[in-house]
Task: inverse folding
């Protein structure tokens, strides 16, 4: 049974070529839903043979859902533009074993990188995310940021995706700042409210979990740094929610 690759993009000219090459190793088509990029993302994608559709950004989940209508196959491999499959994932898909499994969605482990540095500590590994699912019974959620695929029978697999999401600390901070804006807005619109101490409690809980439970302390200064990053943006998410409450 054939697989459709699906990617949502915006100004990803540095990454999209490698992502499409990765998908084409196991997919018979690649669908790109682009949010009107101003760089060469669309040109590169078309040169690689991908089908490209333009759509103003609807949010992380809705944008992916929009792309499903253009996928001719039931099984969807939905990578981000800065992701490529590991060899163990290629072998799993080429084997076709998923046809005989009762599952409709597979969660892979993430290798997260800052530049070429692998961040496999402080809760950054294993970072499970669903990237492979059957669109008949599973689909991305409607969340605006960090959507999660919802399926009837999901399973975690010891398979991997390489995620080259950040080039520097500046890049991590910039992206997480944007994500917390979206998360706070989404929580507010869903009626969630924060007390004055929620930013503090969530901040401490995130730091404690990453530094101790996720063994960040075994990685010296790096373990402390990435634990603090998680803690700070957990704080900011609820601080921004609190600000939205006051403004309303």
Result:
């Amino acid at each position: 049974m054939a697989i459709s690759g699906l990617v949502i993009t915006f100004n990803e000219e540095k990454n999209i070529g490698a992502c499409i090459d990765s998908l084409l190793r196991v997919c018979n088509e690649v669908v790109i839903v682009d949010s009107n990029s101003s760089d060469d993302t669309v040109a590169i994608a078309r040169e690689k043979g991908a089908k490209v559709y333009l759509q103003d950004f609807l949010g992380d989940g809705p944008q992916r859902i929009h792309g499903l209508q253009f996928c001719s196959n039931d099984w969807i491999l939905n990578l981000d533009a800065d992701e490529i499959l590991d060899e163990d994932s290629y072998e799993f898909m080429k084997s076709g074993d998923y046809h005989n499994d009762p599952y409709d969605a597979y969660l892979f482990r993430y290798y997260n990188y800052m530049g070429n540095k692998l961040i496999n500590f402080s809760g950054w590994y294993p970072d499970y995310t669903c990237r492979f699912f059957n669109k008949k019974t599973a689909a991305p959620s409607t969340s605006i940021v960090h959507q999660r695929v919802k399926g009837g029978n999901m399973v975690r697999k010891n398979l991997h995706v390489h995620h080259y999401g950040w080039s520097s600390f500046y890049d991590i901070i910039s992206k997480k700042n944007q994500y917390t804006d979206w998360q706070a807005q989404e929580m507010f619109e869903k009626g969630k409210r924060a007390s004055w101490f929620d930013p503090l409690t969530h901040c401490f809980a995130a730091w404690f979990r990453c530094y101790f439970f996720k063994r960040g302390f075994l990685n010296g200064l790096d373990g402390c740094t990435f634990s603090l990053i998680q803690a700070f943006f957990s704080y900011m998410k609820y601080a921004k929610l609190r600000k939205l409450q006051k403004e309303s």
Notes: The first helix runs from residue 16 to 24.
